Amino acid sequence: PQKIYLSDYQVPNYLVEDVHLTFRLAPEATRVLSRITFRPNPDASSKDFFLHGEDLQLISAKIDGAEVTPDLVVGGLTCAVPDAPFVWEAEVEISPATNTALEGLYMSNGMYCTQCEAEGFRKITYYPDRPDVMSVFTVRIESDLPVLLSNGNPVTSGEGFAEWHDPWPKPAYLFALVGGELINHPDTFTTKSGKEVELNIYVRPGDEGKCAFGMEALKKSMVWDEEVYGREYDLDIFNIVAVDDFNMGAMENKGLNIFNSSCVLASAETSTDMNFERIEAIIAHEYFHNWTGNRITCRDWFQLCLKEGLTVYRDAQFTADMRSEPVKRIEDVIALRARQFREDNGPLAHPVRPDSFVEINNFYTATVYEKGAELIGMLKTLVGDAAYYKALDLYFDRHDGDAATIEDWLTVFEESTGRDLSQFKRWYEQAGTPRLAVEEAYEDGTFTLTFKQSTPPTPGQDQKDPRVIPIAVGLLNPNGDEVVPTTVLEMTEATQSFRFEGLTARPTPSILRSFSAPVILERASSNAERAFLLAHDTDPFNKWEAGRALARAGLVEMILNGAAPDGAYLDAVLQVLRDDSLDPAFRALALGLPSQDDLAQTLVDQGHTPDPQAIYEALETLKMAMATHMQDVLPRIYAQYQVTEAYQPDAAQSGARSLANAALSLISRVDGGTAAQAQYDSADNMTQQLAGLAALLTAGKGAQAVATFYEQWKEDRLVIDKWFGLQISLADPAQAAEVAEQLTQHPDFTMKNPNRFRATLGALAMSPAGFHRADGAGYKLLADWLIKLDPLNPQTTARMCSAFETWKRYDSDRQALIAAQLDRILAQDGLSRDTTEMLTRIRG
Ligand code: HT7
Ligand code: ZN
């Protein structure tokens, strides 16, 4: 397959003045009529006319009213055109009902919907489907369906048709259309300048009771973007539509956001606290794209982090403001390390701004999104809050209406702050997670920290240059008092020392507070020091981090040397649990243990080959030790943090529930599941019911609850996704592959729905001990299903291939088993470009 390079970028040969589209909807024979005004781009060096097009049946084409016969070529068409503005008209036929790839125009439960990012519009009609071609769209939809939506503002509608006009020029990837028998949950919002906006959430009949939370989240997002970034909404209407069959979470189409129903539908009975938090964040994320993504878009797909990194950063700020800043930061770092550090450390590592790709869908990654957001956070730390918002104002002023680049973004910051950001730019260009080694010295009241940065080679990048790293540091004296409050050290050299003078005793440093840079800190530390920081650090992130390091060190001893659980860890975490002055949500996080994947990587970093089963068993042993060590306190905590008020998914209540449920999970290891059964039986919300079910499964007493849960929820597809996933992720690893296999035979299993596929095969792939079972059953099952899914849905298949990305960490037997499965998939006839690229990179 052909690789595309950033360095080959050329401006478009033709620009689009305006676009008129007419859709005559029919499941297997939708007609799409386009009338597009093109003009030659004066900046282009070529006059060749090429339009992208895939899976289209061309019925007719005209230029300035005269029939033409274009040359149909791979990926589109070419045609001779006038050397002046001209009108292109085409009619094509497409088949939404048989479009299982969920890109372009497709059908989901009788509803027509679209997904055009990144390159789906070319499956709707012939068009220059690239983000730097922006135009004004007018759309007419003809169908008997009652709800017919597109981007922008409604123009007119009548029996069997509706017309929409979007006044804001946009690239084709932001185009959207929906048609269906949908129920509307309406509301309104008045912007700060007094403009009335109509808000709607459209859902399938039966889901109308699950829209209220999403609507509130939308209104909060609109207020927040006005208050924090000064950004107002710019159309008369904002529509959200929930769709069941969707490859990702949601899509920010201008004025018509389309959501995976799992990312917008919420009710106390069917959604957990975590679901609510996620839904609030995704609604905010898509809404924030209206400015960072839509009003200012990307010049080309290499610049994806320009909109995604910034928008993830903005949604994280929003969640921190709506809920708890430290808790959000800890959650985000857990996710960053689990997904992005893992990616950065393996065969799929790539720069935040990649310089080549085969299939852009494979680059909607944790690196582009989450590391991209970390870069924005570092920039803000380096320039300071006021300068950050001043630069953002300049960015919006200067680039509104543009298809911009990372260079544009950095230039704005350079001009507005006077800083040279050429070294900072390396963060966008160099893949891999920097290692930051620290050494300390103390003499005559002066404490010196010496940092050394290095980044291991990544595919295609052997050498790395030093980056600028903001390192937030505080110092504690031996009593645990903070003697130097948080100070940001700006590291620019490969090796660099920083001195703190005037101290009366050797301090304990708290380094990388709030996780001020996405690096791996390598620092020799003792368990006594970790326990000290866990007890005294004023920085909540580093307080949590100290507990995590303590747990990790003990677990490594257990795995490698058969040590008993570390009593010092058990005592330290008990202190935290008992400390009622601490936020319950924080305490719940402090009770959490490093994941199996985290421990596997820790062992690799220490020069060992991880044994997935030994890791699993050490975690189980430690959890049992925690349950017995804290036996007196856990029931007290469990009772104290029961929420008696009516269910609210807010930070206070969900924090209390998360602590009580962390306690329940431990209690059920020693009480035979009694408390879990009682909670399961009496629960009036999904958080409590699911935590009860999970605790019962952990106690080995879940069989009956699994059956009753299904009976209760079999009509609710999103709840049944949870039912599929939980049985696999909490199965005995020796049985996980069989449990997953059996669930793929369940009548409710379908591979056409990405949520269900992920809930089943994804759950297995994310359960390391079960997935990496020594006989290779997990690998084979996943490979079997990837082979079946690829012809239907390449995008979701390719994403799930990352289950194999850590394969080189394991022993040679497992590596051979995985290699055989990778090769088997790669040998399939007609394997998609998406999956071929992913597996070729993983195979190495
Ligand atoms: N900008 C969107 C990314 C996206 C996507 C969404 C749904 C289905 C397929 C997709 N391909 C790319 C989502 C976002 O980041 O907001
Ligand atoms: Zn996004």
From TrEMBL:
Membrane among keywords: no
Positions of the Peptidase M1 alanyl aminopeptidase C-terminal domain: 528-842
Reaction equation(s) it catalyzes: Release of an N-terminal amino acid, Xaa-|-Yaa- from a peptide, amide or arylamide. Xaa is preferably Ala, but may be most amino acids including Pro (slow action). When a terminal hydrophobic residue is followed by a prolyl residue, the two may be released as an intact Xaa-Pro dipeptide
GO molecular function: alanyl aminopeptidase activity; metallopeptidase activity; zinc ion binding
GO annotation, biological process: proteolysis
Residue intervals of the Peptidase M1 membrane alanine aminopeptidase domain: 213-427
Protein known as: Aminopeptidase N
Record organism: Thalassovita autumnalis
